[in-house]
Amino acid sequence: MYKDLVDSTGEFNTPRYLFDYLNTYFKIELDPCATPDNYLGARYYITKEQDGLNQEWRFDAFVNPPYGAKNEKIWIEKAIKEHKKNLINVFILLPNKTEAPWFYDLYAISNIVIFPQKRINFIKNGKTIKGNTMGSVIFGLTINAHDSLLAGLSNSEKYIRYGVKRLFFPSRDFLMSKYGSI
């Protein structure tokens, strides 16, 4: 199913610093949207050929699905299903489309929402691609929102605690200085 959803322009790999940022506070063991050339360091990964949409996720996961409305919807549904079924933490990186039908539904059930202050420079064919045309958001479907995430942020970083929800606004400079370069 996964292979059928991906077109040649929708796959952009995650910069390592973004994964390292989350992995510092949550032990992320699964990347169900991995490519052989963008292994981020998760203990387990699933490639497009292995089809992460048709496999069970038994470990805390980081998901960067191929962009595109069809892809976003189906990967969000899968992330929610696996989070609830297996009681795992799932972080899903998506375009910041506040107008999309899925945005507020996903926001409502996320404990953690991370809005990077600048657009992410993704990786394609091993090269950093600048000029991303849209912002990104990371939704955290967590078993419990970890206070260690709050404690780990420097005083210069912005966050808001709203009830049980935590909203983070890290700058790319902060992320890269703390968690490595591209």
Give a description of the structure:
By secondary structure, this protein is an alpha/beta fold. The chain has one domain: 3-Layer(aba) Sandwich (Rossmann fold), CATH 3.40.50. It is 30% helix and 23% strand. The strands form three sheets. The chain has a six-stranded mixed β-sheet with strand order 3-4-8-5-10-9, with helices on one face. A two-stranded parallel sheet has the order 1-2. Helix 3 links the parallel strand 3 and strand 4. The longest helix is centred in the middle third of the chain and has 18 residues. The N terminus is likely disordered.
Brief synopsis:
The chain has six helices and ten strands.
CATH topology: Rossmann fold
* CATH top level class name: Alpha Beta
| Shape estimate | globular
| Strand line-up in the sheet with most strands | 3-4-8-5-10-9
Question: Strand percentage, roughly?
Answer: 15-25%
Order of helices and strands: HHEEEHEHEEEEHEEH
Major β-sheet annotation: 6 strands, mixed
Essential attributes:
6 helices; 6-stranded mixed β-sheet; alpha/beta; 30% helix; 10 strands; disordered N terminus; single chain; 182 residues; Rossmann fold; two-stranded parallel sheet
Secondary structure elements and their pairing?
Elements: H1 2-5, H2 16-25, E1 30-34, E2 44-47, E3 61-63, H3 69-86, E4 90-95, H4 101-109, E5 112-114, E6 123-124, E7 127-128, E8 136-141, H5 147-152, E9 158-162, E10 165-169, H6 172-179
Parallel strand pairs: 1-2, 3-4, 5-10
Antiparallel strand pairs: 4-8, 5-8, 6-7, 9-10
